[in-house]
Design brief:
The chain has a two-stranded parallel ribbon with strand order 1-2. By secondary structure, it is mainly alpha-helical. The chain has helices spanning 11-15, 23-37, 56-69, 78-101, 112-120, 123-134, 138-145, and strands spanning 5-9, 42-46. Residues 28-66 form the RNase H type-1 domain. Pfam families: RNase_H (PF00075).
């Protein structure tokens, strides 16, 4: 009868779940699977970092140093990358628009409930309402220019 293969590791490595395992973890899992497929027993044994096994404390110390110097670089699925970039660009665009509206009489339209009301409208209606509120009512200006309305008022209704 063969002795079981015993793997000593710290708790995070044994119990940890990582979406993008390192090459060492991948190779270790492959080796464990090959042991199991040949009918060999595999025992995972947890060792705390302060247990006193030669080299374990040093390995933990070096691993912590490496993580603080160089954060791990894991590949990211394309969907996650696209979502993160879209969110970043959206935040940047919103902050740019907010900065540009400071001092305008309609700056409050980009905040809170007013913004939610306009975003609930179909695009055509939302744009038309925004133009009327901000004094860019092109239809009213055109009608005034050709004499169909008596007076053109571009006063904000809010």
């Amino acid at each position: 009868m063969r002795r079981p293969a015993t793997l000593h590791s710290n708790h995070k490595t044994v119990c940890g779940y990582n979406l993008f395992p390192s090459k060492l973890k991948f190779e270790s899992k492959k080796l464990i699977n090959s042991f199991i497929c040949t009918g060999r027993e595999v025992v995972l044994q947890w060792i705390s970092s302060h247990y006193g096994i030669h080299g374990n404390e040093q390995a933990d110390k070096l691993a912590k140093e490496v993580l603080t110097l160089h954060p791990p670089c894991f590949p990211m699925p394309l969907q996650n990358t696209q979502r993160l970039l879209r969110d970043k660009f959206r935040q940047k665009r919103i902050s740019t628009f907010t900065d540009l509206t400071v001092g305008k009489f309609w700056f409050h339209l980009l905040d809170g409930q007013k913004c939610a009301q306009f975003s609930a409208l179909p695009r055509v209606e939302g744009v038309a309402c925004f133009r009327v509120i901000t004094g860019h009512d092109y239809l009213q200006a055109h009608l005034f220019k050709i004499g169909l309305v008596e007076r053109f008022t571009a006063l904000p209704s809010l």
